[in-house]
Design a protein that fits this description.
alpha+beta, four-stranded antiparallel β-sheet, 4 helices, 26% helix
Length: 239
């Protein structure tokens, strides 16, 4: 009996090891959107005393949309203080605003990040804005993802059964969701917030196959609101 049990256990271990070696772990990568530089093209204030003597406290936030259409809130990151027009900050290493775990062998996979820049003021409101945005975005996408479950990992595994991989949206469907979430984000900005929230920018990348690499060229994102203008330089990076 013990010999049979050991043989069965060994077979299960070898099967699981073979499953991992067959490509699930080998294809695990991280896809990130990195910010390298933020520049105050035109500091907020339009020449008023607060612009001359004060500074803009700039932060980033937003939401991510994975290939299955699941929406998650990004953690807010501080970009620093900008005291005058033309001032800029370069980040080395780059700030990683969003990180996706790329798993599975179904392609294409479309990843999206709605990146929001904010000039923080007394009274705040940016966190509540993002919470409302995520709630509305999930209603739009009918998402029910558990944020603690790694994306595209099997929900369960029964020896001899096929892996249960969440459905991957088509590129067209994913991009429609991204545009809908972008529209909701712009609509929410019209609410009264103490923080100055700039119009969001949607960044999208589609991995065509397991060997696909995002362009290494930098992308320039333009943020404008009233009398403020900021420029952000970043890129998608896969490792």
């Amino acid at each position: 009996m013990q010999t049979y049990a050991r043989a069965t256990l060994a077979a299960v271990v070898l099967a699981l090891f073979g499953l991992a070696q067959s490509g699930l772990d080998a294809q695990t990568k991280r896809l990130m959107f990195e910010v390298r530089q933020v520049k105050a093209v035109d500091e907020c204030g339009n020449g008023r005393p607060e612009e001359i003597f004060g500074s803009d406290e700039i932060s980033f936030g937003g939401v991510s949309i994975d290939p299955a259409g699941n929406v998650h809130k990004l953690r807010t990151m501080n970009a620093g203080s900008f005291k005058r027009d033309g001032s800029q900050r370069t980040f080395n290493p780059a700030k990683q605003l969003v990180i996706f775990n790329v798993r599975g062998n179904k392609y294409p996979q479309t990843y999206q990040a709605l990146l929001v820049l904010v000039e923080r003021d007394p009274g705040g409101g940016f966190g509540k804005y993002l919470d409302r945005l995520v709630k509305e975005a999930r209603e739009l996408t009918d998402s029910s993802a558990d944020p603690n479950v790694p994306m595209l990992l099997p929900a369960r595994y029964t020896p001899g059964a096929a892996l249960q991989i969440p459905e991957i949206l088509s590129t067209i469907a994913a991009e429609k969701i991204g545009k809908a979430v972008l529209g909701a984000a712009k609509k929410e900005i019209n609410q009264r917030w103490a923080d100055d929230i700039f119009d969001p920018v949607l960044q999208t990348v589609t991995l065509r196959d397991a060997q696909f690499e995002p362009p290494k060229t930098m992308t320039t994102l333009a943020y404008k609101k009233h009398n403020c203008s900021y420029r952000v330089i970043g890129r998608w990076h896969l490792d």
